[in-house]
Amino acid sequence: MISQYQESLLLPARTFQSGPMNTTYEDVLEHIDSGILLFDEEGVLTFVNKQMYGILGLNRHSLLGCTLIHLLSNIQLNRFKKKQVLRGYREMMKKGKPSYEFVDEYGRYWTVSLHCGEEMKGCYLFTFKEISDYKLIEQTAYQNDSLAMLGKLSASIAHEIRNPLTSIRGFIQLLHPHLHQLGKEEYAKIILAEIDRANDIIHEFLTSSKPSVPQVAMIPVSALLKEVVLLTESEALMKGCEINFYPLQEDMIISGDIKQMKQVVLNMIRNAMEAITEKIDDSIGRIELGASREGAEVRIFISDNGKGMDICTLDRLFSPFFTTKENGTGLGLSVSDRIIKNHGGCISVSSRINEGTRFVISLPLIQ
């Protein structure tokens, strides 16, 4: 059932005459950091502050006196915002929820709260507040908790699984001549390969929970990237990809652990290869690799024209155990993120579905 107020929200716009509102209170509402929409008991919009106009992307004073249906018919309101307004209306007005969270087209998090009842004298007050910083803190706390749990889990896994795997591997090697006589030599190869894969997963757990202290040395960025290209060129060709390396315009040197830095770039290039093999069309897969100076930093970029990622995947990309791969562990990017942070840098990523992904590694340069 739709209440009388909800029906009034959907009525056509009508002429609105501003009432005698306290100027001091109005000034306060104009300058708070939240967006405000105030509807009276008849569903007419009586007050909108400047932050709310900015959130909606509409001209100032173009909404007073309108109802919800008139707001949705505003040609200046884009399709994405109309969709969010309707979804918020359904969640709070029809389902009776006091608040509603959403992500806007720029990836920012917002919460909408509804205040009504006797204290509002029949009016309905909607407040919009950006909570992106809170979400970041929440995600960081969750990640730290996951890493703490991972540290305890990985130590147990290393002791309880590695030893029997080593024994099994030894016995399979002893049985290899007998399997060869029986014509079942491929069974031994499969078993050994699976044991090695299990050991690799255990190694990833240990690395992610307790990454080694960087062995600091001076690393020429150009030499680092050239070596990574040499290591991955043949694998890329086998997967139908080509790697385009853009030679650096100048010599740039960073300080860090060469093995860890190589691990990060290799991981991202291999991720790019997998994204290209999973894309829908048959276009040639391309991976671009290069670097440029930005002030006192170097920006190393790895981009591909693979299947891309949606915003939900991007939000959880560096979380431990999160993976979209069938046989993935969800630890590669979380380990890479920690390595770069330990080197005083950061990783940023942008992506679009069916268009590709671009990673940028920012690291301080040695002057």
UniProtKB/TrEMBL annotation:
<keyword id="KW-0597">Phosphoprotein</keyword>
<feature type="domain" description="Histidine kinase">
    <location>
        <begin position="156"/>
        <end position="367"/>
    </location>
</feature>
<dbReference type="Pfam" id="PF13188">
    <property type="entry name" value="PAS_8"/>
</dbReference>
<feature type="domain" description="PAS">
    <location>
        <begin position="21"/>
        <end position="65"/>
    </location>
</feature>
<keyword id="KW-0808">Transferase</keyword>
<protein>
    <recommendedName>
        <fullName>histidine kinase</fullName>
        <ecNumber>2.7.13.3</ecNumber>
    </recommendedName>
</protein>
<dbReference type="GO" id="GO:0000155">
    <property type="term" value="F:phosphorelay sensor kinase activity"/>
</dbReference>
<keyword id="KW-0902">Two-component regulatory system</keyword>
<dbReference type="InterPro" id="IPR035965">
    <property type="entry name" value="PAS-like_dom_sf"/>
</dbReference>
<dbReference type="InterPro" id="IPR000014">
    <property type="entry name" value="PAS"/>
</dbReference>
<dbReference type="Pfam" id="PF00512">
    <property type="entry name" value="HisKA"/>
</dbReference>
<dbReference type="InterPro" id="IPR003594">
    <property type="entry name" value="HATPase_dom"/>
</dbReference>
<dbReference type="Pfam" id="PF02518">
    <property type="entry name" value="HATPase_c"/>
</dbReference>
<dbReference type="InterPro" id="IPR036097">
    <property type="entry name" value="HisK_dim/P_sf"/>
</dbReference>
<dbReference type="GO" id="GO:0005524">
    <property type="term" value="F:ATP binding"/>
</dbReference>
<keyword id="KW-0067">ATP-binding</keyword>
<dbReference type="InterPro" id="IPR003661">
    <property type="entry name" value="HisK_dim/P_dom"/>
</dbReference>
<dbReference type="InterPro" id="IPR004358">
    <property type="entry name" value="Sig_transdc_His_kin-like_C"/>
</dbReference>
<dbReference type="InterPro" id="IPR005467">
    <property type="entry name" value="His_kinase_dom"/>
</dbReference>
<keyword id="KW-0418">Kinase</keyword>
<keyword id="KW-0547">Nucleotide-binding</keyword>
<dbReference type="InterPro" id="IPR036890">
    <property type="entry name" value="HATPase_C_sf"/>
</dbReference>
